[in-house]
Predict the 3D structure of the following.
Amino acid sequence: METFYVTTPIYYVNGSPHIGHAYTTIVADVLARYHRMRGDEVFFMTGTDEHGLKVQREAEKAGKTPKQLADENSKKFLDLFDRLELTHDRFIRTTDEDHTRVATRIFEAMQERGDIYLDTYEGWYAAADEAFYTEDEIQDGKAIESGAPVEWVSEASYFFKLSAYQDKLLAWYKSNPNCIRPEARYNEVVSFVEGGLQDLSISRTTFDWGIPVPNDPEHIMYVWVDALTNYITGVGAFGEDDEAFEKFWPCSLHLLGKDILRFHCVFWPAFLMSAGLEPPEQLFVHGWWLVEGEKMSKRAGNWIDPNELIEQFPLDVIRYYLLREVPFGNDGNFVRDRLIERNNSELADNFGNLVNRMVKMVQRFTDGKAPAAGELTEDDKLLVEVAKKTWREVEDAFKTREFNRALEVTLSLSTELNQYVQRNQPWKLAKDETQKERLGQVLYNTLEGIRWVALLLSPVLPDASGKVLDALGIDEAARSFTTLEWGALSEGQEIGVPDVLFTKLEAPAKEKEEEPKAEAKAPKKKKEQKKSEEKSGKLDFKEFQKLEMKVGLIVSAEKVEGADKLLKLAVDVGEEQPRTVVAGIAKAYEPEALVGNRYAVVTNLKPAKIFGIKSEGMMLAADTSDGKLELAKFSEAVAPGTRIS
Ligand code: MSP
């Protein structure tokens, strides 16, 4: 049996959880469920990071002890994860006793290796990031990358000989090209380490909220040494539970956000090597959720509280949106209307509707029982091929953590099933006595296809898939990918009618309620003005904001064969891969003249097939008076992917 150990970062307890924290933990949950369904032995860990200056200061501000604050806020994370019905095997807290023991032991192991020495640290520190910064990483009293204020620190400190690990780290990266994903992050880390590493200060003496350094309790262990070690505490390293450690280490996958890349991809493997332990198999670095293109913050009032989302939307739909909307690794823009749209068209109209229609037909035409499978016709065989190909693609996509692709192909199988039903028209077959057998086959194949889709969607949509599998009479033991053999649904199986799977959603109730109130208060004149604005085609700012426009750098351009107006462009809009955009600008621009320039691109239109090519964006251009076109252009000062608003 294979094992799969997945972790999320452990969350700081200086505040409450937001959607970013829920996101990573949901992704880990999806992976854990997926691997359980493969039959792997899974360990999924999440938790809270409770020590350090940041938490101590927040507690002082709130007039609490750090432990009180940690208890209160850690509970908020735990409660949220329960409400999200996540299936973690351990919720670790760095104040747990076994963790204190393990953090102490890893420190000792690094000391025994001769990698720790006492000196004085003089330099900049940002408590908000719990990070040290060099002079060239700060500007105007702030860390350039994060914007966190820095303060000058000068105190006795233990140091870790990180510089001694440069070559070992580089050798590890080079011989394990998949150890850091996506590739761009791997390259970022390699070039950072190639640039040279400085020894790292790993203890502080000016506050006391943390784990004391062994044999020198004046010093408190650097919170990142303490925090990263949680990953081995969880599986029992250093004599806590050798069996668990043997089984689950090295960790299969650490998930982390892009802001904590250096700690995880440079410091952590070096600490492990120093302590004589193996580095993890893979670190996957994901992007950030933004709200209307902006970083989330309580001050800006755009904070998305997952608890509120749970009140507004079904859990499955939240999970689906978070995984479907953005390729894992990229930044994403959280837009409630997009969530609603995806729910309505991809879940309710496509899969929900299919299940609904089919179970009803089975009640009407075959007495509520699965009919006999019979011999597959050519058309049926095509369907089976699509289903098999879908499973292969889902497996592939899970390996590369492309959850959006896994969902896209699974929903395409549902589309395929809808088309199969449309082609075979079981309602017509039911009227013809001579077609009874064919009717049974069509219903059987559709039910079987529904079983496949429900199984493939299970890790992301456990609730809706569970309802479908209940209706098909599939018991718990058979809810596994090992049952993805065409024909595993038994003839004669009672087929039930599941509860509503996906309700069509409208704009959130809160917004709907508020609108009429605001209108009622508006003086008549204003109302009339609004009406005439609507007539004249003027948009609310909110409407305008739905449009996502970004600066796109043209990476390559070529003519589209057979279409004299079209160019096929590869446009870098700040994502992992450039997008393909087909634009009707061939008469105005030579392809070579475009490459290397930056233009405005609309990035959230539904993809369109143009001349058989999937176009994933639209170039913005003006028709000039002489009948030509001119693209909206930006200078080199603007980075690709910058939002235009
Ligand atoms: N305590 C450290 C992690 C220690 S792991 C050994 C920490 N905590 S955190 O609470 O600040 O952040 C935890 C994770 O949340 C990070 O991976 C971070 O990237 C992620 N996110 C914070 N804001 C986010 C978004 N807006 N969107 C997605 N993830 C975001 O760092």
Summary: The chain has a mean pLDDT of 92. The longest strand covers residues 549-560. The two ends are 52 Å apart (CA to CA).
